[in-house]
Specification:
With 309 residues, the protein is α/β, with parallel strands linked by helices. It has twelve helices and nine strands. 39% of the residues are buried.
């Protein structure tokens, strides 16, 4: 293996440059850890310990690819500017995909379906609890014999702890949806911020008598520090198969149509409650979805952890 101070010089010759990217990725995989600018020799045992866990290995791989691309771009920039641009930006696009695409698995293992042989779906409701919507939703669920998971915001749970207790008492699941719902900044949040969002939300739920085991990030947006933080707290990341997109154009009927498009057994449905939902759609879209599911012979259930896909 080449010493770190001779790697760039070795590949500066035209004869060696065709092998550049392959060797950089090999060298990076051995020596780079989580974006540090200096090379750190690691023993195999330490590297195996540090990369324990599927999600953490994926994060490290994405960061290694990003760093290796940047190094390769610098080394070939003068002789192959087009290739240098691709090497510089394509890894960024790959990382962005795994951060912002809800079903992308590169940073966090996200479950977006569940296994079932019956006509069952999992109804999930985000952004509560809400003093106007939550009681009405609980009434609707009871009327339809449906169970649901409420992914709640910690600040709301702290203010409306009685609603959290009511959700749990009605046989539904209460899950974690961050403490403040930092939609714009969660993707770039520091490890300390991610930990605060998780811990403050969990504390608010514990005060209401609930210990969540499932988590959904705001809008499905992930963070490179999230997988480790979730694992440390025993939280599983849950996405969705279909969503109502309540803030898009249309009325409650349009939301219902989007929510049941492509409906199949094992689907995870995402709907919202609270003041962010337009007034004409609040609760009414959930009512419409429950009625359509009933008409098609579907039952709303909360799957066990062994069912998650």
């Amino acid at each position: 293996m080449l010493p770190h101070h001779t790697l760039a010089a070795h590949y500066a010759t035209p004869e060696a440059k065709p092998q550049l990217v392959t060797r950089l990725f090999e060298e990076g995989a051995k020596h780079y850890v989580l974006g540090r600018a200096e090379r750190i020799p690691l023993t195999d045992n330490f590297f195996n310990f540090f990369t324990k866990g599927w999600a953490l290995r994926q994060v490290i791989s994405l960061v290694i690819v990003n760093l290796a691309g940047k190094m390769a771009a610098i080394l070939v920039g003068w002789t192959a500017p087009a290739a240098a641009l691709a090497l510089w930006f394509v890894p960024d696009l790959l990382l962005a995909y795994h951060v912002f695409a809800p079903r992308a698995q590169g940073l966090v293992r996200v479950h977006w379906r569940f296994s079932t042989a019956r006509r069952e779906v999992w109804l999930t409701i985000d952004d509560g609890p809400d003093p106007e919507d939550t009681p009405r939703i609980l009434e609707l669920l009871a009327a339809h014999g449906a169970r649901a998971t409420f992914f709640v915001i910690g600040e709301n749970a702290r203010i409306h702890s009685g609603l959290i207790r009511a959700i749990a008492a009605a046989g539904h699941e209460v899950a974690h949806h961050t403490h403040t719902h930092p939609l714009a900044a969660f993707w770039c949040a520091s490890p300390a911020t991610v930990n605060r969002e998780l811990d403050a939300g969990m504390e608010a739920l514990r005060a209401a008598g609930v210990r969540p085991t499932r988590f959904r990030p705001p809008a499905g947006i992930k963070n490179i520090w999230l997988a480790r933080a979730l694992r440390a707290r025993g939280l599983t990341c849950v996405g969705w198969s279909v969503r109502g997109l309540e803030r898009w154009r249309g009325d409650a009927d349009a939301v219902v149509a989007r929510a049941i498009r492509g409906l199949a057994p094992g689907a995870i449905l995402l709907l919202h409650e609270g003041p962010r939902v337009p007034a004409a759609i609040r609760v009414e879209a959930i009512r419409g979805v429950l009625e359509r599911l009933r008409d098609r012979g579907y039952q709303c259930v909360v799957p066990g952890p062994e069912q998650l896909v």
